[in-house]
Amino acid sequence: MQASWNHTTVLLNEAVDALFNRDLDPSAGDPTGIYVDATFGRGGHSRLILTRLAPTGKLIAFDRDPDAVAQASAISDARFSIRHEGFSRLADLPAGSISGVLMDLGVSSPQIDNPQRGFSFRFDGPLDMRMDTTRGQSVAQWLETAETNRIAEVIREYGEERFAGPIAKAIVARRQERGPISTTTELAQLVADTVKTREPGQNPATRTFQAFRIFINAELEELQHALTACLNVLAPGGRLAVISFHSLEDRIVKQFIATHSRDAYDRRAPFAAPKVMQLKALGRVKPSTAEVSGNARSRSAIMRVAQRLPS
Hints:
The chain is α/β, with parallel strands linked by helices. It has helices at 12-20, 44-52, 66-72, 109-113, 139-143, 148-159, 164-178, 184-194, 206-216, 219-233, 247-259, 289-294; strands spanning 34-37, 58-62, 80-83, 98-104, 234-244, 279-285, 302-308.
């Protein structure tokens, strides 16, 4: 029997309020509309969204993780459906049909705490890290053949790790001497042996594990495609709320909202009409002190909210 891994939803009420709140704009929030939970996880946000929907409303959820899809089967509500797909497939939804999109990025606690998923250096398990365990390469499989320069590039770009070069060389040297790395413990120990200095309180392998997870799941590319899709699928007045957990994600979301929240002028055609802004930025929200105290994994969360403007 599969273990029941606990998960506490971050910014639960704040995120759902962002989709339905009428305080900032009376036109916001349509309980009869169609909403999207782009990252179902364990369904905390979805279940609360369903309590806000009218009987004619609908909620579409997405998740790549087959365990999350299995959890969703427990929701017996005709207004709810889930798709075993990455949230970039938002692009498949009809234009202008969605009243709100919520994206809760990152890794869920059940994924982190299950050693068999290979996301955490705290547990010994297979070096997998795939969000969707039914397809694609695991981290271990990729490291069997990846070249030193490519490994270093991934660690540097997605982990912002200043020791990317030495870590990559150590991984390849280990592969040549004793065979490829296959477990989380092996990778964590190799990084610890290579990185001699680190910020107080941070495991030396933190950045490398983050980098490999983001890379193997194409997380940033998935996010960029999904954000672009939102411009097409959101109805005028529809809300976009995105919760991110590290600077790479938040930078993409922040820049996306900023870019589409202002008129764009083409300097090559100074007399052409500007491309009108498509979003209205509604600010950012961070977890309360009480939430961080009760759920330490929420401490790095930032939610940015925007509203779709008429074309």
